[in-house]
């Protein structure tokens, strides 16, 4: 039995971005295409096979411990970004302000796809979903900087809608307009949650 099964859910890449290595903040820069390597997007601040642990995993590792980098990419859905924008009173939400790697359109309730799911492009490039990307204050600051009065509500509005973090399983090029097929683990949910 296969551990993953392809679904009928196909997403289109509507936005790609990279956070510069010499970043003054979390903002991404828009790009037309990105080379996904085993370390993440070439040239991205978050690229690397390993990273220093942060507050998000402090229950498992002391902060600053070298761990596997499963946060190479930040993937959000255009549909959920629209919901966040509406909740904070904006017409649209600029993905640059969130430090996003990919924005996709076409997978309902994307933030809640099961961990371990894959997003596979037609050329074989494959991204693995790690976990939900919990909202933090850094994007709120960037939103507030560009749209005063709207950033303060971001964290609450983004809860359950800020997409997922992920890492590269199979290298390849990704470009605007590429499609990604969702593959999900073929297992029942854990009874111990």
From TrEMBL:
Location of the MOSC domain: 28-183
Source organism lineage?
A: Bacteria, Pseudomonadati, Pseudomonadota, Alphaproteobacteria, Rhodobacterales
> Transmembrane residues, as ranges?
none
Please state the span of the N-terminal signal peptide per the UniProt entry: none
What's the protein name?
Sulfurase
Checking InterPro entries in the record gives:
MoCF_Sase_C, MOSC_domain, Pyrv_Knase-like_insert_dom_sf
Query: SUPFAM superfamilies per the record?
Result: PK beta-barrel domain-like
Q: Which PROSITE patterns match?
A: MOSC
């Amino acid at each position: 039995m296969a551990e993953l099964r392809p679904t009928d859910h196909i997403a289109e890449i509507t936005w790609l971005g990279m956070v510069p290595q010499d970043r003054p903040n979390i903002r991404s820069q828009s790009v037309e295409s990105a080379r996904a390597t085993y370390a993440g997007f070439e040239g991205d601040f978050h690229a690397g096979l390993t990273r220093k642990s942060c507050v998000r995993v402090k229950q498992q590792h002391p902060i600053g411990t070298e761990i596997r980098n499963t946060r190479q990419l930040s993937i959000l859905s255009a549909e959920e970004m629209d919901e966040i924008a509406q909740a904070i009173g904006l017409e649209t939400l600029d993905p640059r302000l969130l430090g996003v790697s990919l924005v996709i359109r076409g997978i309902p309730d994307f933030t809640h796809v099961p961990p371990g799911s894959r997003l596979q492009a037609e050329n074989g490039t494959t991204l693995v979903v790690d976990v939900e990307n919990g909202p933090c204050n850094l994007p709120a600051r960037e939103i507030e900087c560009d749209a005063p009065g709207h950033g303060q509500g971001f964290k609450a509005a983004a809860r359950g809608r800020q997409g997922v973090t992920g890492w590269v399983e199979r290298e390849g090029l990704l470009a605007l307009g590429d499609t990604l097929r969702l593959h999900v683990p073929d297992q029942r949910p854990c009874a111990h949650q």
